[in-house]
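Task: complex structure prediction.
Instruction: return structure tokens for all chains below.
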Amino acid sequence: MKRWVLIVVGVVALVLPYVTEPIVVHTAIEILIMALFAMSFNLLFDGAGLLTFGHGCYFGVGAYTAALLMVEMRMPMFPAMVCAMVMGGLTSLVFGYFCVRLTGVYFSILTLAFAQLMFSVFQQAYTITGGDLGILDIQPPAFLVEVNAYYYFTLLVVGVSIWLLWRIMQSPFGRTLHASRDSVVRTQFIGINVRRYRLAAFVVAGVFASLAGGLFAPFNRAVAPFLVSWVKSSDPVLMTLLGGSATFWGPVVGAAVFTTLHEVAIGYTTYWLLLMGGILLFGVLFLPGGILGFLEERLHVGAAAPRTRMTEASGASSNARAD
Amino acid sequence: MTFADVVGQFLSGLARAGVLFLIAAGLSFIFGVVKIVNFAHGALYMVGAFLTFSYTKTLGMSFWVAVLLAAVSVAVIGLLMEILIFRRVYGRPVADQLLLTFAMVLIIHDVVRLGYGSNLRSVSRPPLLAGAVFMGDIIFPSYYIFIVVVGVAVLAGFWAFLHKTRLGKTIRAAVGNREMVACLGKPLPWLFTVAFAAGVFVDGLAGAIGAPLGGIRLGMDFDIIILAFATVIVGGFGSLPGTALAAFIIGEAYSFGIWLMPAIALSLPFIIMAAVLIVRPWGLLGRSGGGEL
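Output:
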């Protein structure tokens, strides 16, 4: 993406609270959190060629960890958020250890299964998580209670995280992940343990997703099992695809469009899923590169050629027989 | 906990397994032939259940006509989905196919909500099967027996279709070597359409005959699709006997789990699936080599 676009967006983000109403700033906070969540998903999807359907699990673990520590233990927000990241990292390490042993569709379904497992745990452990009621009254520290303050805090955390994700993707580690996405066999031939690299990517994605969850809990003031559900897991998938998975900034664009669309649409209709399904259908069929991919192709803002992903998946499926 | 209780629980697990087998068999068959993982399978199952409700309650049809008509209606919906949407993405990455079927999940969910609202609906068992067979203390509800019979009949029917009919043999050949079958002048896209519709027909049938077992509600689509995935994976993608075995294991695990350990009953299928995926990623009766890194 051209540098001037970034600068313009950055300036708008900085002055936003001074030129708009609190409700817009509120939506902007949600966009930032969702952007980080979607970017952590895309580290796995575009970065390593792994489509996870259970990423909401780590978002939820982060949100619940922060909420429990802040409400039950009276822990201040910053250490609670660090603990949320640690918990998210540990959870993704355990689940990831099993998930990265599989590829393609099998990987996707196992991530979904672990997420459902966590969902039923969060929903049924009444004594700890409050069951369906969740945890209420999560208060951020006094200097962050005001919406503008929380906005700048979120902007700082998400900005630094995105910069870190960028550095990770440009590092030898990120390049190796890309290589393993494009050809597992060739990457293994040069002596790289693909499984270990994928596990590392899974944990990094889990840590950033749980940071997003940790930011969300004090912002939303409440957490509920919904945050761990399949609907939450589908959000980053939809956002990333909408914005354009093959571009670094695609998930951010997708999060902005998706969240704004949601805010506007719920004022008119309760049939949000129908709308989202229709957009997804249209997007996959006619705009395979997402919004950013389309813009870059048409306006030559940058170079983004459509790529084939998950090539091993077809190899895996061709082994199945129907008798 | 008497012997009769255990047998009763076993039977209810068997009925659950029968419905699960029908859904998973359709899912597995479609994956085996068309190579598409149909996320919308659970949504179509839900449509089958809601249509059975409409046909019996609103239109006053007899249960048997309603079941058949619901299954056919679902098959027609599946047929249209395949021709209008999925056919366009056969050459595309797996992620695109998953996302398209996922889009159908969202769309069908809200269309059903549009038509029926969020209320719980129910269909009563047909008079012929409303009773039970008694053997001493043990009660066999007739409807459970009926479901098991349908499950076995579908298993046999699938086998006979694939091994004894010309069309079935051609489909098996297409699974083995697509190019060769195309070279022999067989219309490959239409074979896929037929296979997709057949899988979805069985799925709609499951929704219809499963309808009198419990409430019909929004959300049953997603509960069942994850159970169906678990069943197909535990049994092995593409293996019908494996799917039957897995449906039996998961149905019974759930039935006894809810009775003996209600706290973890809902998680049991996922625990079984995770365990199988870790030890035998290709499933209990599947062929090795698929999906492992």
